[in-house]
Structure formats: structure tokens, C-alpha cells
Amino acid sequence: MIASGHSGGTLTVTLPTLDVRRIAIDSNTGVSLLSGGPVSATAASDTAWFNGGLAQFWSCSPNQNNVIDTSQYLYYVILVDEVDAGLSTDFYGPMSATFSTINDMRFP
After folding, report:
1. Given CA atoms 58, 1, 7, 86 in this order, what sign does their dihedral have?
2. Which residue(s) pair with 21 in the sheet?
3. Neighbour count for residue 20 (Cβ, 10 Å)
């Protein structure tokens, strides 16, 4: 939720990004499950981004052919707030992972 519009009605320098990642349990190197890297929120204007102070939603779709394997990997999300010269007052509430179009439902 965006607490207030940006001064001057201009959109922030960089909108927030979301990345879904996994890390091998015996490693310290995480990899993105998104082929294009982090997904950025989109808004055409400051007014659209503020959205009257209501919640914002955006989604991402990890690469195909990934099998969720909790015996070998830990999964996590990185959310990077917008960049606007330190004036951000955004609130990030609960995240919900939803699954659709899963061809392989092996969850070891």
C-alpha cells in the first residue's frame, strides 16, 4: 500500500521489484526462478501508483520445468522497495503464493 502520492505528481525513480529464488541447502548461492530476473511493479503515473492508498498487486511466473524439491532447496522471495530519494513510506503486507498450471506436482 502506498501511503501518499509522490511530490510533484511524478513517478518514483525505480518501482519495487519482486524475485522468486531458490538456494541449494548445502550452498550459499541463490538463483532466480524468473528467466528475466526480478519483476517490477508497473504503473503509468503517480496517480495510478498511489491508487487512492489502496493495495497494489503484481505477480510473477517462475520458469517452466522447475520441480519444487524441498529436500534439496530452500525457496524465498526478495522484495526491493521503490527508490525515490529516501521518501518511500510504502507498507508491504502479507504475501500469498498461489500455484496454477503445474504439470509436475512432486513435492518431495
Report:
1. negative
2. 32, 76
3. 19
